Amino acid sequence: MSLLVVAAAGCMEQDRPRVAATDSTQGRAQLRVPSDSLIADDQLGRSIRRGRAILAATKDSLPNHVGNQLSCTSCHLADGTRPGAAPWVGVYSRFPQYRSRNAKINVIQDRINDCIQRSLNGKALDFGGRDMADIIAYMAFLSRDVAPPGEVMGQGFIKMEPLAPDSSAGRLVYAAQCARCHGAQGQGLANPDPNGVPRHYPPVWGPNSYSIGAGMARLRTAASFVRANMPFDRPGTLTDQQAVDVAAYVIGQTRPDFGPKALDWPRGDPPPDVAYPTNAASKKAHQSP
Ligand code: HEC
Ligand code: HEC
Question: How far is the CA of 95 from the centre of ligand 1 (A)?
Fold first, then answer.
């Protein structure tokens, strides 16, 4: 991939060029994926392998906890190892952490359940259950060479200029570049290419997609994900503007609601691309003169 990747969480000035050796990436470890040969044939090794399988076939593995047709690896590509697709390498060392979305210290179980509830439109896992333990065992395995605070190159999503979106231009990009895999109605397809490897192309909107409370429903996150990773077979070929336009088009379509969304960012500090009002933000707006 020709794109150089920096963390979404990094705080670069907006006019800085997108290069790897910036302040926000200096001193970060390289993203290195540990070899499978390091997974022993013992209890822990079996847990790591089971965790990886759950993350890649989430609905089949956790039918009572998944409310759509996505797997964790629909967004965390290549079993959570792809730079610029919120990789899990190092993630075990990045928790506990404070998150403004709930204004609390979050442990890794909280973060996993966040994506289950919002991105998979599902029901939280038991903190102490076997499924949670196996998922964490895999994430800890991926993070075995990364000491806290767990910062690695390529974590999160690429940083992009915040461009103004044009979703009618995005509709054309979608039809030309995305519909062959994700379907004209965003519904997802099973193996659209008769000569291709059989596989599932996940829905990008509609009742089987991620909810409006998901990170991927935010414009900047979706644009960065798409810019670096889509089209899946030709990543990096869209311009920044095309990525922003198609992301705006996709997130503007209907998708499952997320009931408690108004409780997000209780201190009234949502990022600028959150598409729904929150209680605290509107209270703040009323209070300000
Ligand atoms: C629809 C896309 C999508 C799906 C599906 C998804 N995630 Fe995520 N995930 C995200 C996004 C976007 C972020 C980063 C959000 C942000 O910017 O804070 C994220 C962040 C995370 C993080 C924190 C990563 C870090 O670097 O701190 C973990 C852990 C995680 N997800 C686990 C999961 C698990 C487990 C599943 C399946 C149960 C899952 N995700 C499914 C989009 C997704
Ligand atoms: C060649 C097929 C293909 C094309 C073309 C393609 N995608 Fe994808 N896309 C995928 C696959 C496959 C995944 C899930 C990754 C996995 O399962 O490994 C995915 C995942 C996604 C996701 C996250 C999961 C979800 O369902 O929401 C989004 C968003 C997305 N693609 C948007 C786009 C956009 C926008 C375009 C057009 C610019 C596009 N894709 C073009 C195959 C494709």
Answer: 14
